[in-house]
Structure formats: structure tokens, C-alpha cells
Specification:
The protein has no helices and 29 strands. The protein has about 300 residues and is mostly beta strands. The protein has one domain: Methylamine Dehydrogenase, Chain H, CATH 2.130.10. Strands 1-26-25-24-23 form a five-stranded antiparallel β-sheet, with no helix packed on it. It is globular, with a radius of gyration of 17 Å. The N terminus is likely disordered.
Length: about 300
């Protein structure tokens, strides 16, 4: 079922990718849009051709659920994290594991490259954020301050701010170069599950277990808007490349599209029969990929 509110293109599921043996927790496009990576509870990362839907490779090595994947800015390497408390660095072209980074004392719940590709941030159930040199595999900094599991991380587009969201109900902002704590954003009534910067860096969106999405003004770090409508925890967020849309995904089995500027709900996709766990836009904004608890990846496109 698909419902519409307001104007805008009607997104529809154009194809479904199958092959994973368990929940699909995370999805990520390469910067050139030619690869789609997926992370699954079947302990694997899979690479796909998003144009044809063809499965290209299965990356084996994790010994437990894989939760998150991220490409470097040049697309040459891919990072994955999961319940085995490790970070793995893969060569995108060959699928070879280049390094396994260890140091976290709990599940590694999220991963993000900075815009330069010289820093890798990871969020962990050990209540810390770690910054790594992806070339050497060295942990260069440990950011501590959250009082509970850190669920998510995101770099601003200029790389000057790192945001982390936690089960302590807060978002923390850091200077990733110095490791200095900048400030805390509070307002969520439960865990913060995901954070995402707008492409222009002017806003930060956070979503959580309280079913709400909060959008913060990056010039003042004050709350700019609050989006409400989901009936379950929100697990994923993604801005469209042009910054006009904010997509959210929830265990309430829906993907929702919001007008990023006004907070107006423009479309709700409820074709899934299970919770949606990960979403990402292609670099050209023409595809939204989603990963779900039914083991499938769906590719959504504006209907012609």
C-alpha cells in the first residue's frame, strides 16, 4: 500500500534484491552510484549492481551480525561493523578484507567516513566513539562522555563536526580533529537511533525510539523542527542529495518522505510487511534503497 500527502514525485518499489539469509540492517551506495552495499544479520556484507540488481560479491569475515556499512569518499574502500566488536575495511573493487580494526569493548553499532576519507568514526555499545586512521588501522582518538550505548555517528559535510547519538537520549557534538566535546543536544524522550546532516550542513536530523525526528539548526544548534507521524521507533534517516527531502524508516513498517524545509509529510510507503532498518539515497537522488527484516533490499524510484 502507498499513500500520498502533498505534491511531489510518487516513489514506488521498482525492484527487490534477495540473497541475504537474515535481516538487512544497513545499506550504502558508493559515491559513483555503481555499487550498493548491504549489511546483514547473516554475518555478511553483499555488493550489488543497483542498475541491474545483480549480486556481485559476498564479503565474509564477520563472526556475528553486521549492522552498518559505509564507503569512503573516493569509493575505493568500504567499512563494516557489527556485533563481533570489530571494524572491517574492504577493498571495493575486489572484496578483499584489507584490515580488521579492534579496540571497542562492545558491539560496534555504526560507522562513518569523514569527507576527506582520512578519518573513520565508529559508535559502540561500550559508550564510546572511536576515530581511526583507515589507512593504518590505528585508533587515533577515543571520544567519551555518553552515559549509555552510542548508536550512531555522522560527519558534517565539511568534516568539522562529528555528531553521535546515544541510548542516553542525547546527541553529542565533537570536533573530530581535536576530539574536543562541543555541546549536547537534548530533547528526545528515548534512545537516539540515527543522526544525519543535510547536504549543505545547515541542519542535523536525529531520530529515535520516541518515534520522533528532530531537526537542529547547525548555526545555533537550537531545535528548528520536529517531525511526527511514525508509530514506532525510527531506525534510519537519509537526506536526498539536493537536501529537499528527508526520508525516515521505522519498525512501524513504513518509509516516510518529509519536506526537509517545512517538515510536511509528502509520502508514506507501507508496502513492507516488516520493519525497515536501513535506507540510503543514491548519489543522483534517483533511487532510495531500503533494507528490512524480511531479508530483502528494495529499490524505490520516482514513478514515471
Amino acid at each position: 500500500m502507498l499513500s500520498m500527502l502533498g505534491a511531489g514525485p510518487k516513489w514506488a518499489c521498482q525492484s527487490t534484491l534477495e540473497g541475504h539469509g537474515h535481516w538487512v540492517h544497513g545499506v550504502a551506495f558508493s559515491p559513483d552510484g555503481k555499487l550498493l552495499a548491504s549489511a546483514s544479520a547473516d554475518r555478511t556484507v553483499r555488493l550489488w549492481d543497483p542498475t541491474s540488481g545483480r549480486h556481485l560479491a559476498t564479503l565474509n569475515g564477520h563472526t556475528d551480525t553486521v549492522l552498518a556499512v559505509a564507503f569512503s569518499r573516493d569509493g575505493k574502500v568500504l567499512a563494516s561493523t557489527g556485533w563481533d566488536e570489530s571494524v572491517r575495511i574492504w577493498e571495493s573493487a575486489t572484496g578483499a578484507c584489507l584490515a580488521t580494526l579492534k579496540g571497542h569493548g562492545g558491539w560496534v553499532l555504526d560507522v562513518a567516513f569523514d569527507p576527506s576519507g582520512s578519518l573513520l568514526a565508529t559508535a559502540s555499545a561500550d559508550k564510546s566513539v572511536r576515530l581511526w586512521d583507515p589507512a593504518s588501522g590505528e585508533c587515533v582518538r577515543i571520544l567519551e562522555g555518553h552515559s549509555d550505548d552510542v548508536n550512531c555517528v555522522a560527519f558534517s559535510p565539511n568534516g568539522k563536526v562529528l555528531a553521535s547519538g546515544s541510548q542516553d537520549r542525547s546527541v553529542r557534538l565533537w570536533d573530530p580533529v581535536s576530539g574536543r566535546f562541543v555541546r549536547t543536544l537534548e530533547g528526545h524522550a528515548n534512545w537516539v537511533n540515527k543522526v544525519a546532516f543535510s547536504p549543505d550542513g545547515k541542519h542535523l536530523a536525529s531520530a529515535g525510539q520516541d518515534h520522533a525526528i528532530r531537526v537542529w539548526d547547525a548555526s545555533s544548534w537550537k531545535l528548528a523542527r520536529k517531525f511526527e507521524g511514525h508509530t514506532g521507533p525510527v531506525d534510519a534517516l537519509a537526506f536526498s542529495p539536493d537536501g529537499k527531502l528527508l526520508a525516515s524508516a521505522s519498525v512501524d513498517k513504513s518509509i516516510r518522505f518529509w519536506h526537509a524545509g517545512s517538515g510536511r509529510l509528502t509520502q508514506t510507503l507501507v508496502e513492507q510487511t516488516v520493519g525497515v532498518m536501513g535506507i540510503t539515497f543514491s548519489p543522483d537522488g534517483k533511487i532510495l534503497a531500503s533494507g528490512s527484516a524480511d531479508k530483502r533490499i528494495r529499490l524505490w524510484r520516482p514513478a514515471s
